[in-house]
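chain below, 322 aa
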Amino acid sequence: MNIKSLLLGSAAALAAVSGAHAADAIVAAEPEPMEYVRVCDAFGTGYFYIPGTETCLKIGGYVRTQINYDEVPGPAADWDARTRGYLTFAAKNDTEYGTLSGYINLQADDNADTFLDGAWINIAGFDVGYFYNWWDDMGLSGETDVSAGNLSNAIRYTYDGGSFKAGIAAEEVTGNNTNDDVGVSGYVAGSIGGVTADLVASYDFDAEAFAVKGRLVAAIGPGALGVLAVYADDPNFFWSVSEWSVAAEYKIQATDKFFITPAAQYFGDFAFVDGNDAWKVGVTAGYQITEGLRTLATVNYLDVDNVADGEWTGFLRLQRDF
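prediction:
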């Protein structure tokens, strides 16, 4: 064998060995696939999927600054500026029992710590947790009426038939006497055409007193007329302002962005003192400055029997919603 043959044979052997181990060469690892936030349109606008789950989350809230006016006697200042931040979280996903929802509301004021303004679970018509009762839902749209409403631990069931609703609730009542106890409420609501009516009746076992409230809202002309009435046999968790009260307002939608709402309310046996009546009148106006930014202002006057002077109150608010 000559030198030329030896070199050619060695080159062929080296090529064969190199080809056999080509698969063992260093290869760059493929990057892990990124999971981008996906829009969830199953429950309305604003929801997105929590990465790695089938649960949809929506975050909202507002930032509010307002100047309050309260004509109180004494050395305290009549004017007071306040700022608030508010966050809402809603989580939803489909189950064999229907939509499972969870809600958390957090409120932070400039003069107080952040606190829980509601946290509850909803499924198959049931609400369980810490939330406002139907009394709070049944106010008028303006800022004049006093219509009550409480936040408490409760369980309730609501049947929603679209134009007809009915429900029953049991809630923890506090602050009346020395013992915590239970209150129960029944609720019915219906709508036909441009008219909506609802009624709630509640009994406070701690105070051994009941209260009932009804409301009617009807679209009339360029706005909506709202009326409500309240009665309670004694002060209780649900209503402790007066023995009875009636209120009315007319919300005038002057333009797409501007509304004005004059309103009035009368209180019989104010503070549950026989013959001590009171009345309140006021006006609320709001303007949508641009998308997500609005302003609201109200001026109200309250006159109570056996009190020398009436009281003026009001505020001017700027709010950014998101």
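Confidence is low (pLDDT under 50) at residues 10-18. The two ends are 88 Å apart (CA to CA).
thats it, cya
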